[in-house]
């Protein structure tokens, strides 16, 4: 494996550090209400813990298919495929060695007014059980003083394949070392969720959130009803509310009441996994900070989980001659 490297994008307001290992955001510093910079993503100071598998997908891009595939099996055009069962009884985030655990190749690193960095990865036919070769690129751009954009593209070379990439950053707008996110408020532009079975696989139902603890159509504290959903939120939201800008849908608004930092996320993906770091426990991160349950929140825009096995979900199959395109725009502010 090539040696992973760390790169920086800095526009004088936002400072982003990203590694070629999994296109991983290791640090993202943005100003609070007093203009004080704070690192708002969970992670490690060095690349070694990422290489050793100590990170529960901190900051990385996951694929070829994000989230869970039931029993690690699917059928496409009459052919049966079996994937590694790395999160029994399912396959999760691309298998044992998904795109988060490979070193991507640097294509371009631009400075200037809109600094950007582009990585590419060529996924082989049969890699982690998936069909066909896939050429993948990811570009991070600081498009304005307080805006980060991620553009992910994937082009199948010779066979149809499921593709659904996701950016798996754990956010804590109070600062990565500020404790849990239960007092953050969140608004999600979704009137429906895809409820799950005991193995976190969607049942196929598209369920209205009204009158349930999943309703974040208006701003609510993350912790206000979290005790009603088991160990926490780990659910796919159907982004079906009309609010668009830059050709992208408004997915979520996250706010920390102490620092007054706000993150608005816009995307062209159909769904978003809202995950409250339920399985994080006793991880020692940057600067010796301890990360525990609910110490961050993931806002993973995506195709629906297990969509390859659910005919009523939006298709994630991409065929030769077609292109997968997934954009996310992270807009930071204070209020």
Automatic annotation (TrEMBL):
Any one Gene Ontology molecular-function term assigned to this protein's record: carbohydrate binding
EC category: isomerase
GO biological process assignments: galactose catabolic process via UDP-galactose, Leloir pathway; glucose metabolic process
UniProt keyword terms in alphabetical order: Carbohydrate metabolism, Isomerase
InterPro entries associated with the record: Aldose_1-epimerase, Aldose_1/G6P_1-epimerase, Gal_mutarotase_sf_dom, Galactose_mutarotase-like, GH-type_carb-bd
Catalytic activity, as annotated: alpha-D-glucose = beta-D-glucose
Pathway annotation: Carbohydrate metabolism; hexose metabolism
Family stated for the protein in its record: Belongs to the aldose epimerase family.
The protein's name in its UniProt record: Aldose 1-epimerase
